[in-house]
Amino acid sequence: MYLVDIVFHRGDSADLDGQGEEGVDEDCASNAENAGYQGGKVGVVSTKQLIQLIICAMAVLMPAMISHFLDFKALGFKVGGTVRNMLRSALVSNFLSYDYTSRKQVESGSFFMATMRDVDRLLKLGYMNTLTLVKSIAHMLVLLGVKLAASRVRNTPISPSVFSTLLVLPTVLSIFLLVRRRTIFQALAKKQKAEDQLVSRMTGIFAEYPLISAFHQRPRALDSVDTCIREQNSSGSDFAKVMLNNTYFVTWLEGLITAAYIIIRGFSVLAGTTPLGITSWILTSSQALARKWRPCMRFSWIGRLCLPACTP
Prior knowledge:
ABC transporter transmembrane region fold; 312 residues; elongated
């Protein structure tokens, strides 16, 4: 926005050419001279413009440098590993405290998958994505702050369309997740149950191998494993379809908001009442905001994720 509307602004060259030498407006002539146009010829770029270009270039590079440094340092924080070890130790400790009757109610596959799959899923898609959600909200607030500051600097009225463009996405997504929560959880529960049954069946084959070999039950054992594999693949495919539709809902919503904003604000840009830089910045910001909100579609089902081995 600053680069297009301030640094690369060349003034109203059309008015400058049409007014003739006697009717040249002083502001237009000043803008043309600042942009490097003197007497219709390309002039030397001023020191002020060079400094502005350097500032814009550094503004592009600095976020990447800071993000790289912080992401590298985050690998040594040991937050994820500590939480993972704590959850797994708590599961094992809880399981060992059960009495004989309670332990018989917990399938081995459910316990193994709870300590391996559900702990990682709860950590990566729950705790770590909470930080992503906070980051997305902070990004939205920063965008609103930049727009308010830009309107104040340019002494232009604040357009309500800016707030609607940035706030309508998280609002509609929140409503969508509440409506789809039951469907997502049912698909997840089916997928999780099929995975647990497959692991339990594989564990049972190892334990029952002497009997299977003695009574020549290999075909029957293979059929039972094939059945579990088919159910696991089917449930996994159903869950993937549900999550794919959720992800594409963000894409469709982003496209509809962008298309509506282009039509509504495009007339103002063509009429010259709205700067092109601000319009481009809002479009780019809304698309970046949609990409940041896309991972948050998992919060609707990760909140309902349960660890089966926790309940005796």
